[in-house]
Specification:
CATH class: Mainly Alpha
Largest sheet: 5 strands, antiparallel
Number of helices: 5
Distance between the termini: 40 Å
CATH architecture: Up-down Bundle
Number of strands: 5
Membrane topology: Multi-pass membrane protein
Main location: membrane
Strand content: 5-15%
Number of domains: 1
Pfam families: Claudin_2
CATH topology: Butyryl-CoA Dehydrogenase, subunit A, domain 3
Strand order of the largest sheet: 4-3-2-1-5
Radius of gyration: 25 Å
Structural class: alpha+beta
Subcellular location: Membrane
Keywords: Membrane, Transmembrane, Transmembrane helix
Length: 218
């Protein structure tokens, strides 16, 4: 059940990538204030958490201040849900959740890969599936980080936009996406390599059998 260097490198990248993706998925540092101005209203934001300090939404006619860090779907935030959840951010949540989910399946697939024999008749198809799964995760993650990078720190969303910066959680998400592409491509290369190897073995076996038949007939 020995694995090639390419397969082991791909598996290592997948494990590290999964850790990066789960940290980015769960931490509230996709966007954060630089704290250089007085009376900071917006502090930091993740996919599922947002932190305010005496923030009131100017388009909401109740003078309700928001403080501390809350789950973004908390009942108290319902009155400003249109502000908190613009279309682009909902898309970011959806596509990065899809990326995260595919990586959970990918981690399970990595365990299967490490325990699966290369002689298994479905080994090549499994590698093809695994590589395609990670490429799909990478594509979903790409859409998420692209949309957030494009609109996340824009002037039309969080207050004091000129003092807001992309945070380290977003950086980990980007690195995770790159790692997803790398691992997926390596598994696809491994699949192609084993496919060629098995094809050659079939040709050699067929040639040997033909020679055996010819020798027997003689």
């Amino acid at each position: 059940m020995g694995k090639s260097k390419t397969g082991l490198i791909a598996t290592g990248i997948e494990v590290v990538t999964f850790l990066l993706v789960i940290i980015a998925f769960s931490t509230p540092h996709w966007l954060e204030s630089d704290y250089t101005q007085q009376n900071v209203k917006f502090e930091k934001l993740g996919l599922w958490t947002v932190c305010f300090h005496n923030f009131t939404e100017i388009h909401f006619w109740y003078d309700t201040p928001f403080n501390a860090c809350w789950w973004i779907f908390e009942e108290e935030y319902y009155i400003i849900s249109n502000f908190l959840l613009p279309g682009f951010f909902v898309a970011v949540q959806f596509f990065f959740t899809l990326c995260f989910t595919l990586h959970i399946i990918g981690l399970l697939s990595a365990a299967v890969y490490m325990g699966c024999s290369r002689e298994n008749s479905r080994f090549v198809k499994f590698l093809l599936f695994f590589g395609s799964l990670l490429i799909s995760a990478a594509l979903s993650g790409t859409i998420a980080v692209y949309l957030f990078g494009l609109y996340g720190d824009g002037r039309d969303w969080m207050p004091d936009w000129d003092h807001n910066n992309i945070g380290w959680s977003y950086a980990l998400a980007v690195i995770g996406v790159i790692g997803s592409y790398a691992a997926g491509i390596l598994y696809l290369i491994e699949s192609r390599r084993h496919h060629i190897k098995k094809s050659r073995e079939r040709i050699i076996n067929a040639t040997y059998q033909m020679e055996e038949r010819a020798h027997t007939n003689i």
